[in-house]
Amino acid sequence: MNYFIIILTISLFCVGLRTITDKGKIGYPLRQLVDTHLPVIIGKPLLLCAPCMSSFWGTFIYFAIYNNSIGEWILVVISASYLNALLWSSLEKLKC
After folding, report:
1. What residue ranges in 6-93 does DSSP mark as E strands?
2. d(Cα 41, Cα 50) in Å, to the nearest integer?
3. How far is CA 19 from CA 41, 69, 74, in A?
4. pTM listed for this prediction
5. Which of 24, 58, 65, 82 has a 20 to 30 Å separation from 88 between CA atoms?
6. pLDDT tens-digit map of 53-90
7. Residues 1, 66 contacting (CB under 8 angstroms)
8. Cβ distance 51 to 84 under 8 Å?
9. Any idea what DSSP says for residue 69?
10. How many CA atoms lie within 13 A of 51 on its CB side?
11. Rounded CA separation 52/57 (Å)
12. What is the rounded CA–CA span in Å between residue 21 and residue 96?
């Protein structure tokens, strides 16, 4: 499997989920719930931080769909985290 496709799948899912839970969007109540009732160490990988989300959601997506090897999983999740940071940063700059 092409690593880029796996990384892109994880990143688009994470950034999309982070986007729909932003203030004023349909998923914002869920974000508020996570923000107020869960510790930051759990909330960030679930919904609060786009780069952090690849650790949880990337693991879930990787093992649910691809499940090749532990080494590939580490490579893919770290790469997706970097891509999430770039994409989220770009989106934030477009808001201004």
Report:
1. none
2. 14
3. 20, 30, 25
4. 0.89
5. 65
6. 999 999 999 999 988 889 999 999 999 999 999 999 99
7. yes
8. yes
9. -
10. 9
11. 9
12. 19
